[in-house]
Q: What sequence folds into this?
């Protein structure tokens, strides 16, 4: 089981390709995702837990904990769809970072030329809609529970993968 550190940051990925090259050069495994689709820190914590369990039980769809985490965080069953939905995009400004076995999270932030800002991870109804939660689903729960609908999608990925 890895130790994962979750944080939010702001900055700019002018080029997703260049940003990902910087990520690959880091001394620890870093999963950057679009924070505009992350409905709270609990969203990513749940994704990490599910990913680690899938790897332990051999039900994983990918070979790394970071890619498996992205799969769960996206609520998708296919890696290509997960990357398209949650991955770094050109011009992206809000980042959700999951750092695996990282000794110095602030060094990662510095090397990626970002500013730590956990506020970008705060959940909202708008983020739930951007994530893919339908209006009918949102109307079935009080507004403060909208992030729970995203957590349901995270948990449901295990069933979708079968």
A:
């Amino acid at each position: 089981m890895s130790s994962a550190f979750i944080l939010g940051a702001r900055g700019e990925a002018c080029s997703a390709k260049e940003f990902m090259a910087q990520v690959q050069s880091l001394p620890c495994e870093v999963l950057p995702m679009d924070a505009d689709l992350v409905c709270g820190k609990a969203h990513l914590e749940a994704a990490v837990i599910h990913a680690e369990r899938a790897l332990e039980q051999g039900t994983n769809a990918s070979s790394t904990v970071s890619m498996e985490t992205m799969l769960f965080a996206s609520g998708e069953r296919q890696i290509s769809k997960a990357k398209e939905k949650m991955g770094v995009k050109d011009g992206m400004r809000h980042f959700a970072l999951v750092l695996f076995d990282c000794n110095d999270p602030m060094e990662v932030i510095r090397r990626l030329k970002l500013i730590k800002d956990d506020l970008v991870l705060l959940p909202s109804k708008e983020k739930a809609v951007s994530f893919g939660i339908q209006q009918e689903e949102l109307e079935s729960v009080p507004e403060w529970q909208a992030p729970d609908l995203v957590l349901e999608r995270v948990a449901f990925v295990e069933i979708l993968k079968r």
